[in-house]
Amino acid sequence: LNPGKSTSDRGCSQSVPKSGIVPVPPTTQVTIEIRIGPKNFSYTVRLPPASMLVISDELTDLLHQLDEAAAQFEYEFVRSLSRRLRTVQEAEDLQVRFLGSECFFPSCP
């Protein structure tokens, strides 16, 4: 989208502000198209009103706490399987090595 220009969506025109942020009207529909090989898949999604798309600081804090709790759970779970892991850093190092081996040798189990 070009800031300052107007765009048309299903017959109604909308002006794009100079900031480049496009306000979301209440009836916006987005079609997602994915091509996998010779096949095309599409799905239409109806977006909620713009007032509901705002992520508050409170929600951000809750998501951050949830992420930390999930990371701690993952560490404790892996630690329960392997007693050799004593610190979070050891678990992170192991995870990096594992992900690296998947990237370099994807056909290996």
Structure, explained:
This protein is flat. The two termini are 44 Å apart. The strands form two sheets. Strands 1-2 form a two-stranded antiparallel ribbon. It has a two-stranded antiparallel ribbon with strand order 3-4. With 109 residues, it is of the alpha+beta class. The model is unreliable at 1-14 and 99-109 (pLDDT under 50). The protein folds into two domains: 6-52, no CATH class; 57-104. The protein has helices at 57-81, 88-104, and strands at 6-9, 12-15, 29-36, 39-46.
Largest beta-sheet details: 2 strands, antiparallel
Shape: flat
Count of discrete structural domains: 2
Number of strands: 4
Helix/strand-derived category reads alpha+beta
Physical arrangement of strands within the biggest beta sheet:
1-2
Percent helix range:
25-40%
Oligomeric assembly: single chain
Protein name: FERM domain-containing protein
Region (Disordered): 1-24
Organism: Echinostoma caproni
Biased composition (Polar residues): 1-17
Task: Fill in the keyword field for this structure.
single chain, 109 residues, alpha+beta, 2 domains, two-stranded antiparallel ribbon, 2 helices, 4 strands, disordered N terminus, disordered C terminus, FERM domain-containing protein
